[in-house]
Structures are given as C-alpha cells and as structure tokens.
C-alpha cells in the first residue's frame, strides 16, 4: 500500500498536523531507544482532546498496545492501535521540561549550539500548539510511543531502557479527524545522561473501512460504546458510515 504522506521527525524535533479520519498513521523507529511524545485533539473541535484517565480506566490498563483505543474527553475514539510490534507504549510518565533537560544533559542554548541544542518536550509542544491556535494550557497527559514504563507494587515507576529497537513500528487508525502534535524527545524517566533521541518516520496511508468484527471495536465492551459514540457523531455530521455500525 502506497503512503499518501511521509515525514521523518529528526532527533529532538517536533511536528504537528491534522490527519483526516479513515487513515493509517504508521510510526517507525529509525534507531534504538526511540520515544515520541504525542498529543491528540479532534480536528473539527480542538476543545475535545485525548483523555488519558478515561482511556486507561475504560480499558483496564496502564499501558497501550494493539486493540486499545485512544479516547477523547467526550467518550469518542480519536484513534485506534491496529498494529504494534512492541506490545507496550507508555501512557503515564509525561514529557520532558526545560529544567529536567538542563539538569540531566547539561545546559544548551540555540545561541551557542544552533540546531544542535537539546530541545525539551515542553518547548516543542508550546511552539506547535501555538501554530494550531492552542497554547500551553491545552497540554494534557501525553502518549509516549515506543517507551515502556511500569509501576511496581509500591507504586514506583520504572523505565525499561532497551524496550525499543531500530525498526520497531506502531500503527494508529484515525477514527476522527485528528490533530497530532509530536515531540521527538527522550522519555522523562530515561535515566541515561546521554540525550537519547533517534529519527522517527511517519507514514499516512488509506485505511480499510471498519467492519463489524474489527479487533479494536471488539477488544472490550467499553471500546464498542466509544465507537458507537463516534459513529453517531459522524452520522449527525452527514458523514457516510456503515448502517450496521449504528444498529
């Protein structure tokens, strides 16, 4: 299947763009130890955005992988995870700040290092959100693609250093028009003092129509209810969807 769009986000880089519903968004790590901090907003109404607490609560999980859906704060499905070579993506550790980046990797500035200065998720998100009519008040808990973070029995969070290898992939399917905002910066719990960020390739492809036996739809009863909310939303807008989905 040929891609209709592709882009590589360099180490430390950022990107944002709205991708229409019914697309596959495939991410490929072009090196070991990738981490792509991700924000998502409904393309037609930017006040509706990815809701981490509802997504995890409804699917009885603390991490995300194939079959899981990314729910909005209106109980609809923004995107679904339809393919995943890793089996675990971090939903709980957040993104890097300027203070954390300076303390861990040393102080760098654009004035001194130009494009080699070390960027933080905080700054990358701030810039890209403004470009899309939003601001820092619109930053919500992020999804960190390619990272694994787990909690032990005492509630301590642990980052798994060698979780992602070069060539790892994960594919999201857009169930609504979705504004993506990406920051290709290290996971905040990564303990290494070397700025670990590698290029990540993004490809957008056409997705097949969602069928009644779709894996993500049927992964949990809560998923189906969120899909039904989404299909109802599209039906009221006059978008074409299969009638069977609304029965």
Describe the structure.
With 247 residues, the protein is an alpha+beta fold. 19% of the residues lie in helices and 30% in strands. It has 5 helices and 15 strands. The strands form 4 sheets. A 6-stranded antiparallel beta sheet has the order 1-15-3-13-8-7. Strands 2, 4, 5, 10 and 14 form a 5-stranded antiparallel beta sheet that branches. The protein has a two-stranded antiparallel ribbon with strand order 6-9. Strand 4 and strand 5 form a beta hairpin. The longest helix has 17 residues, at 221-237. It is globular. The model has no long low-confidence stretch (mean pLDDT 95).
List keywords for this structure.
30% strand, single chain, 5 helices, six-stranded antiparallel β-sheet, five-stranded antiparallel β-sheet, 247 residues
Short note summarizing the structure:
19% of the residues lie in helices and 30% in strands. The chain has five helices and 15 strands.
Terminal Cα separation, in Å? 32 Å
The counted number of beta strands is 15
Q: Any low-confidence stretches, pLDDT <50, length ≥5?
A: none
The outline comes out as globular
Order of strands, widest sheet: 1-15-3-13-8-7
Largest sheet at a glance? 6 strands, antiparallel
In N-to-C order, the SSE pattern is EEEEEHEEEEHHHEEEEEEH
Structural class: alpha+beta
Compute the gyration radius: what is it? 18 Å
Question: What number is the mean pLDDT?
Answer: 95
Helical residue percent band: 10-25%
Estimated share of beta-strand residues? 25-35%
Number of helices: 5
């Amino acid at each position: 299947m040929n891609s209709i769009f592709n882009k590589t986000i360099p180490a430390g880089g950022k990107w944002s763009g709205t991708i229409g519903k019914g697309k596959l968004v495939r991410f490929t790590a072009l090196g070991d130890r990738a981490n792509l901090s991700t924000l998502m907003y409904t393309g037609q109404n930017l006040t509706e955005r990815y809701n981490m607490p509802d997504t995890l609560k409804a699917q009885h999980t603390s991490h995300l992988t194939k079959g899981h859906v990314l729910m909005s704060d209106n109980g609809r499905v923004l995107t679904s995870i339809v393919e995943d070579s890793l089996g675990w993506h971090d939903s709980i550790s957040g993104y890097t700040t300027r203070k954390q980046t300076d303390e861990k990797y040393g102080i760098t500035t654009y004035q001194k290092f130009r494009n080699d200065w070390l960027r933080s998720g905080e700054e990358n998100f701030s810039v890209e959100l403004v470009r899309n009519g939003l601001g820092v008040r619109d930053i919500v808990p992020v999804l960190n693609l390619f990272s694994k973070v787990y909690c032990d029995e005492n509630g301590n969070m642990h980052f798994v250093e060698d979780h992602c290898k070069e060539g790892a992939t994960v594919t999201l399917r857009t169930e609504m028009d979705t504004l993506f905002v990406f920051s290709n910066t290290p996971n905040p719990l990564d303990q290494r003092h070397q700025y670990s960020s590698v290029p990540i390739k993004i490809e957008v492809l056409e997705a097949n129509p969602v069928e009644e036996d779709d894996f993500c739809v049927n992964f949990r009863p809560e998923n189906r209810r969120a899909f039904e909310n989404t299909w109802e939303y599209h039906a009221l807008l006059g978008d074409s969807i299969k009638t069977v989905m609304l029965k």
